[in-house]
Amino acid sequence: MKKHELLAHAKPHYEEDRLLELESAIDYATEKHSGQKRKSGEPYIIHPLSVADILIDWGMDIDTVLAGVLHDTVEDTEATLAEIENLFGRDVAFLVDGVTKVSQARAGMRDLASYLPQTKDNLSKLLIAVGQDVRVIIIKLADRLHNMQTLQHMKPEKQVKISRESLEVFAPMADRIGMGRVRVQLEELAFSYLDPKEYRRLENLMRQRLGKSTRKLGIVRTEVEKSLKDQGIKAEINGRVKSIYSLHRKMKKVDGNIDDIYDLMALRIIVESKEDCYRVLGLLHTIYQPMIARIKDYISIPKPNGYQSLHTTVITPSKQIVEFQIRTYEMHEFAERGLAASFHYNEQKSSKDYTKHKGSATLPSHLQWISQLQEIADRLTTGEEIPQEQLNIDLFGNRIFVYSPKGDLYNLPEGALPLDFAYLVHSDIGLHAYGFKVNGSIHAFDKPLENGDVVEVITRKLPQAKRTWLSLTKTTHARNKLRSQLKRLGMLESMTHAAAIIRDKATRQKPNQK
Ligand code: MN
To answer: Which residues are catalytic?
Structure first.
């Protein structure tokens, strides 16, 4: 990647004066990195320019692209943040600082678990950087992607270490923000280094299988295209091939028998509206026999990272099994680009939508975890201690979606209890919660919610909150709100240190008395 190539790539997307800034950022970074070399022996500047190039591919705003060009200057050269702020403005400096902090936080960490508390200070840095602006994660992902693409120049031990981290930390991070294409790219590269033999074996196996089925699939595709046309549904059909890494994971589930995997190749039908998605589903089910257990409606119940599509697997008259994925252009864009899809080159405003201090309510449900993360970051900033188990639940666990009776979607960590939902909707609703109905039936306070549940909170006029509720909430958010309510109601006496010791002793001396 050279200066003129990057500028040519950027040219159609950004305004004239911002392009001049890009040019001067390139010159600045080139000068700062001069003399430094990558492991391949090429000049170091190739790396930041390639990262910026990836960010343009992803359609990111110009501040992010500038930060991509500058992302290694503060860490690896004598450039300072103040200088960058001076030359390129506060926003760009803020992003560069965030990326630098994430790198520092990461130093010496191997997997998700080690991001956690034994290195509390690093973790806070990471959270604060990421929590304040999600563009920091996006730059980090571009950085990681380019490093993976050029990993062949590293020593084997390094290759394995970096690949494992990509698989355990960065791919899940990409998935969490819905960047499906990047997740797959990272997984494929990482897997090819971690288990090269298995990677090649599966690649060959896949090639053989696809050779056989592509022609047959062509017939199905023509058939479907014709029916869609007859019904007057405008649609685009294309094939999608399963990634090697996801095949590898699936093979374990089917005891290594590739014949039991029905979605090696799927047909993707992209239409203009949600209504059309269901019309197409109906149409497919009239021409082919659906496998009932494999119909999935991720439109009414999106996957926790926001992914939406209808999936169905059908059996054709010639006994071929074909998977279809049906979605709108918008859903397709989100499935591929995720959070990055909310940034559109020059639209400065949209990038601000995902920056600090937006309440949960203003974020789409699949991004509510970002504001939860910001909340935790804020508390860590004030020096508060948050136990490891809590952070695990809030940040790195799986997520579920639940609905309010009105159909509003809420995003919670897996294992969340009804009170977590109540407090997420509103702290007053939490305070006055008397009982819960889930999918129309009474639901106990201690029974976890599940993905897709419709949750109704039954309230009473008087506050219901009690101390025992502290063990009936899982999220930091709910616990936090509840605790301050209990304090206000005088139900959570703030014990003095001395009193605490006395009480502690008393309980220890009478272990059998409860
Ligand atoms: Mn870098």
So the answer is: 75-76
